Amino acid sequence: MFAITTDNNSDLPMTYLKEHDIGLMSLSYTVDGQTYDAHHPMPDADFYARMRAGAMPTTAQVNPEEARRVLEQALETHDCVLHIAFSSGLSGSYQSARIAAMELQEQYPDKQIAVVDSLAASLGQGLLVHFAVQMRDAGQSFQQTVDWCMENRPHIVHLFTVDDLFHLYRGGRVSKATAIVGSMLNMKPVLHVDDEGKLVAVGKMRGRKRALDDLVKRMGEQIGDYENKTFFISHGDCLADAEYVRDQVKEKFGIPDCLINFVGPSIGAHSGPGTVALFFLGKQR
């Protein structure tokens, strides 16, 4: 059986990671001068409370030393390691993992390391990890799982909305004029992650509930013939809204299982409190 590793921008719960023996690389984040990471975290609810109080966190990618540490630890007990990385369109963390993997491949020539650029974020990345875990546990080979991830990553659909455009403006995702006008008119953007793993606005709705409903509407347009047995939702400390979307999806599409978790601080620093994101397999992003 092969090892699977990822990074904390997959936003999978620690209980899930431990249960399925998934190694974790950490991006770090700094709040009010104090630096945290997945190994020494600030509680998610506290992080969002600090943001609501005016804190403006910054983030840093996985560094090659951290990537090497996690991969080498996996190589100590496995001949093959699959690492599923945060989108290269949003961070240099994938490149750090590749550098570490190339160095370790020279050191361990009889072992295999595959670094997959998920082209995904948050629980979209987490959903790809979840499918890899299912394949591994069902007895699929290392190469079969790597190939499946590469072939199906364009079908991990991301749909999300944010409550406050300021955080996207601060991160350079929308213009200042868009942020100001949108806030004045109570416009809520609907965004997705495209085939290059980058954030792209696909619509805007007036009012929060309409934006949440639009996520579910777009799911119906994009799911195609895929028979999803599970879907994931992440949220920026707005559980009730995440549960509203979950209930709508279950009612409309009959998908039985849903995992809900926080948008972690490394992504939440850029999307802000009130983010709701929906992830599933579909015909296209």
Automatic annotation (TrEMBL):
Keywords carried by this UniProt record: Lipid-binding
Domain of life, source organism: Bacteria
Record bears the keyword Transmembrane: no
GO molecular function, one term: lipid binding
InterPro entries membership: DegV, DegV_C, DegV_domain_contain
Keyword Cell cycle: no
Coiled coil start-end: none
PANTHER family for this protein: DEGV DOMAIN-CONTAINING PROTEIN DR_1986-RELATED, DEGV DOMAIN-CONTAINING PROTEIN YITS
Function: May bind long-chain fatty acids, such as palmitate, and may play a role in lipid transport or fatty acid metabolism.
Protein name: Fatty acid-binding protein DegV
The species this protein was found in: Butyricicoccus pullicaecorum
